[in-house]
TrEMBL record:
Signal peptide: none
Protein name: Large ribosomal subunit protein uL5 C-terminal domain-containing protein
Entry GO CC: ribonucleoprotein complex; ribosome
Keywords for this protein: Ribonucleoprotein, Ribosomal protein
UniProt-listed SUPFAM superfamilies: RL5-like (SSF55282)
Every Large ribosomal subunit protein uL5 C-terminal domain range: 139-247
Length: 251
């Protein structure tokens, strides 16, 4: 595989800029984290198996961000694609088209290149009964994760060939400025958005033999970074902006 242009862009240019933009100077040493005050005594045998949550509720939205150091500058760790095929609930063969498309988009195969950690295309199965048509163990979609050069190759195709040709795409919708950032999504460092079926045909990997696929599929893209804690999602958006992915404020 040829060297990734976007990977070089991150390591040679974007990484230093992001570190400067997101640096938070702390002139005092952080106090050690306090042990949470749980609702029940974990040593009490009468409450051993109860759901034990901290007093005042779960404080995940107030998780502090890590200290700013050159070693924990935000970076893109993996990209996950997810597609739901409703017709697969009655006919499992309907998943074949989505599997073929995801394999072409990602280049991922099971243990590809001798890497045991590569899972390739995974079948998504229902976990519980929902709406009368999803049942536990029933195949309902496909998903795949990309890392390394394949991740940057997909990102380059998305930025250079797909998004500029989507007429009604103005950018990934951002929440209102007044919305609280102390939420599980706000501290996760993950940015997600969806693309319509017509966008799949714009990827060069699909466009070269688009007639080989039964139809195009809409799917979701999840950009997963190493950021966590307060303002993690804002830092993730800043990173993606450096890769020329546009954002638009919700109106």
């Amino acid at each position: 595989m040829h060297p990734s242009r976007l990977a070089d862009h991150y390591h040679n240019t974007l990484r230093d800029d992001i570190m400067y933009m997101t640096y938070n100077h702390e002139f005092q040493t952080r106090a050690p984290a306090r042990e949470p005050n749980m609702k029940y005594d974990p040593e009490d045998p009468y409450s051993k198996h109860r759901r034990n949550i901290p007093r005042g509720g779960i404080q995940i939205g107030k998780t502090p961000s890590p200290q700013s150091t050159p070693d924990n500058v935000i970076r893109l760790e993996k990209i996950a694609l997810h597609c739901m095929v409703k017709e697969a609930t009655s006919n499992r063969s309907q998943l074949l088209g989505a599997i073929m498309a995801f394999r072409a988009l990602s280049g991922e195969t099971h243990q590809g290149g001798g890497n045991r950690h590569r899972n390739g295309i995974q079948i998504v199965k229902g976990r519980k009964t929902e709406g009368g048509w999803i049942r536990p163990g029933l195949p309902v979609g496909v998903t795949v994760e990309m890392t390394g050069d394949r991740m940057y190759e997909f990102l380059g195709s998305l930025v250079n060939f797909v998004l500029p040709r989507l007429r009604e795409f103005n950018g990934i919708k951002m929440p209102f400025a007044s919305r609280s950032q102390q939420t599980p999504s706000g501290v996760s460092g993950v940015v997600s958005f969806g693309l319509p079926p017509q966008a799949m045909a714009l990827f060069p990997q699909i466009e070269v033999n688009v007639d080989s696929y039964p139809r195009m599929y809409g799917f979701h893209i999840h950009f997963i970074t190493n950021a966590f804690g307060q303002d993690a999602q804002a830092r993730a958006r800043a990173l993606l902006s450096g890769f020329q992915i546009p954002f638009a404020r919700a109106s």
